[in-house]
Amino acid sequence: MPRKSYTHILATLGPSSETEEKISALIDAGADAFRFNFSHGTHKEHKERFAIVRKLANKKSLHVAIVADLQGPKLRVAEFKKDKVLLKEGQKFVLDMKKELGDESRVCLPHKEIFAAIKVGDELLLNDGNIVLEILKKTSDSALTLVKVGGELSSHKGVNLPNVKLPISAITEKDREDLKFALKLGVDWVCLSFVQSADDVREARKLIGDKAMIISKLEKPSAIAELEEIIKLSDGIMVARGDLGVECPLQTVPVLQKKIVNACRRHARPVIVATQMLESMIQKPTPTRAEVSDVATAVYDGCDAVMLSAETAAGKYPVQAVKMMSKIITQVEADPLFMSNAKDALIANKYMNEADSIAYAASKIAKVLDKVAAIVTYTSSGRTTFLIARERTKIPIVALTAEDKVAQQMALVWGAKSFVKKRYFSSFAKFEENAVKLVKENGLAKPGDHIIITGGFPLGVRGRTNILHTVHIK
Question: In the sheet that 142-149 helps form, which strands lie side by side, from edge to edge?
Fold first, then answer.
């Protein structure tokens, strides 16, 4: 049986963690899923890593999720003559579309969409928000700005526009090529970057269909304004605190994190908290106390997964970072307050259909029925497991499916452990027998225990959860 923590770990692969030996060590340390960051690396490198993960997962009899994270539009200044300049507070600085190399007075900003969207008085944030420019004048291809917060600005640094919705798609031409490659490879989830509105998710769905589940990364204030609709259209959500912390006031990020996690709970969507969770472990073998508290807070909030970025992709201590995150999760989940906090996070949820009602009823039965060892969800799409996970019951959730991909996708769902049995959907007569056999063989239940079974009938039909069944194991 796989690890028994409720909260999962998503680790990013990169130069520090791309060998078979390192990936194996990451899985053993506690990684349930791997992120392939398409902002870096070649298709050849991603393909090699994909093959290693699948090989190791099969060898270890685990269902490990693979997440393709698309780069999205990257808004950056062009190059400077001397690679970098020093901008001083109070000076004027010009952004334009001229191809000449930049200097202390101007630089090329090769994004006509920005000049179309900005207006006088807007602020532009450069270099992760460390430099602040205010728009004084603008034309269709240039802007005169006032440096409000100065500092060093080097070639190709990023540009953020808080509260400005840009007339661009979240999916670039590069993303389209990367997406075709990732879907052909067989990734389980696709992360959509730079989501500004629900329409961005709709566009992605047309391209992806049911070939992979979609995670919308929330990093733009405009996306927060359409939070409920974006969650409904997505299969999962990532709280991308990096850009979110640049475009929104820093002090609002913890509040937004809780708001997003709770909203995902209401809609039964897995939610991942990401960015700078154990940042100091890029260079050091131990994290700061504040970082440990940050990870613990995300777990207490009831997120489905926590993510490591550069810590495992480019850091000096990738395996130690996963081990540390696993230790934090284990410690928090051992606290009696953990389950009460996870339950309290879902307030006044309205159960609107029979699938919601059955999931809710299963969680209540688990509280009052003696010795409930597991909740078994027969699922064709994973949605039944999503609904059971939303209830945050302390009973293990066993996701039973006929599809390898669905089992892998469940590696990011709170408390879920997946099993693939191709013949389990053959007839209703086998429904109870197969569930009992599975939990007994995997040490989840013994004679005298109860299990709760949920699913849809007819078996194997997607989108139906209409069965709630209890079994007393003899």
Answer: 106-108, 92-96, 142-149, 131-138, 123-126, 159-160
Catalytic residue of the set 7, 12, 145, 275: 275
Contacts of 448 (CB under 8 A, 6+ apart): 371, 473
Among the listed residues 49, 106, 138, 217, the single catalytic one is 217
Query: What amino acid occupies position 449?
Result: D
3-class state of residue 166 by DSSP: coil
**Residue-range domain boundaries for the chain:** 8-72+170-335, 84-160, 354-472
Among residues of the chain, what percentage have pLDDT more than 70? Answer: 94
Buried b (16+ CB within 10 A) or exposed e, 128-159: ebebbbbbeebeeeebbbebeebeebebebeb
Map residue 48 onto helix, strand or coil: helix
Known catalytic residue at 35: yes
User: What is the signed CA dihedral for 48, 49, 53, 55, rounded to 10 degrees?
Assistant: 20
List CB contacts of 235: < 8 A, sequence separation 6 or more: 189, 213, 214, 215, 269, 270
Could you say which of 47, 54, 76, 421 is catalytic? 76
Closest listed residue to residue 234, CA positions, set 222, 218, 247: 218
Identify the active-site residue in 7, 12, 35, 383: 35
> Catalytic: 464?
no
383 flagged as catalytic: no
Mean pLDDT of the 210-224 span: 95
Does the domain at 354-472 match CATH 3.40.1380.20? Answer given as yes
Q: Where are the beta strands (DSSP E) in 38-161?
A: 65-69, 84-87, 92-96, 106-108, 123-126, 131-138, 142-149, 151-154, 159-160
Question: At residue 422, does pLDDT exceed 80?
Answer: no
Residue 348 confidence class, pLDDT cut points 50, 70, 90: very low
Res. 291: pLDDT tops 50: yes
CATH of domain 84-160: 2.40.33.10
**Neighbouring-strand partners of residue 306:** 9, 273
Give pLDDT tens digits for 10-58. Answer: 999 999 999 999 999 999 999 999 999 999 999 999 999 999 999 999 9
- 367-387 confidence digits (pLDDT tens): 889 899 999 998 889 999 999
In the CATH hierarchy, which top-level class contains the domain 8-72+170-335? alpha beta
pLDDT score for 466? 84
Any catalytic annotation for residue 138? no
